[in-house]
Amino acid sequence: MGGLVYAASPVQNTKSFFNYLTRQNKTENTIEWFCHFDDDVYLNFKELSKLLLNYNSSKPYYIGRNIRGPKGVKLDMYRWNKVKRSFFINATNYWYAAGAAYCISLALMKELEELFNGPAIFQRTCLTTSSSDDLTIGIIINMVLFHNLTDVPHIFVQNNQLSHIQISNLTKLVTISFRTDKKNKSIVYNMINPKPEIFPLHQDPTRFLTYHCILYSNTSWCPALKTQSHSQNITNTTRSHEVTARTIVE
Fold it and tell me: What are the residues whose beta carbons fall under 8 Å from the beta carbon of 18, sequence distance 6 or more?
């Protein structure tokens, strides 16, 4: 991999995400990896770069944190306006990547492009599964294209426990995330829990500020260097993934 290109997709769903990325690659012809991260994920760029260097993008790779796929899933693969192949997945021996964070190699993306070549093909395929878009992608890669998921334990998403991980090991993670209560989104749990506390919980409910300061302690607003004015700016602020990402790039 020649380098990591950070390109924030301006779209809100996986169908548009794939369309956007394939257009970018046709324009630039330099993209080796296509990665999807939800906006409630903090991405550790350095660890992602190190991770992808271990794999050859000219081969079909589907990389993420594994979830066992459900059985009893129907899938119709469309070719233009007709159903080309129908599947009924009644097994539990396949895995797909948690939708919050996964990467697809250039070689695999070309295979997916070929399958989805036509108007609304991906959208129609997703609708037939009655399942999430990330599950649909996983089924297609695993059961149609016959490529297995490469499981990466250092990718942490909402369902992975973070509170027990020591600070020394947090720097090795590719992503972290958090969970919110289904009924009350202001209640956040399953975050990192470093001791001693870097920011009070009310200032940093997702612990993304904390994680950023663990990775980049020289950042001006991190506690070791912050002034009173910085403290006031941080109070009652929850920085999003995009803001944190821009800080890292700068």
Answer: 112, 116, 122
Residue 49 has pLDDT above 80, yes or no: yes
Greatest distance between any 2 Cα atoms in the chain: 64
- Give the whole-angstrom CA distance, residue 147 versus residue 149: 7
Q: Report the Cα 86 to chain-centroid distance in Å.
A: 28
CA distance 33 to 19: 15
Please give the Cα distance from 59 to 82 (Å, whole number).
30
Structure pTM? 0.76
Q: Are strands 73-79 and 82-89 parallel, antiparallel or unpaired?
A: antiparallel
Distance, in Å, from the CA atom of 162 to the CA atom of 155, rounded to the nearest integer, reads: 11
Provide the Cα torsion 129, 10, 147, 58; round to 10°: 160
Better-scored residue on pLDDT, 5 or 234? 5
34: β partners:
104
Which of the residue ranges 6-10, 138-142, 172-176 has the most confident prediction, judged by mean pLDDT? 172-176
Place of tokens 């369902």: 159
Distances (CA, A) of 210 to 155, 201, 216, 225, 242: 18, 10, 10, 14, 15
| Mean pLDDT, residues 55-74 taken together | 85
Cis check for the bond before 196: say yes or no (omega within 30 of 0).
yes
Give the Å distances, CA to CA, from 191 to 13, 113, 126, 160: 25, 36, 31, 10
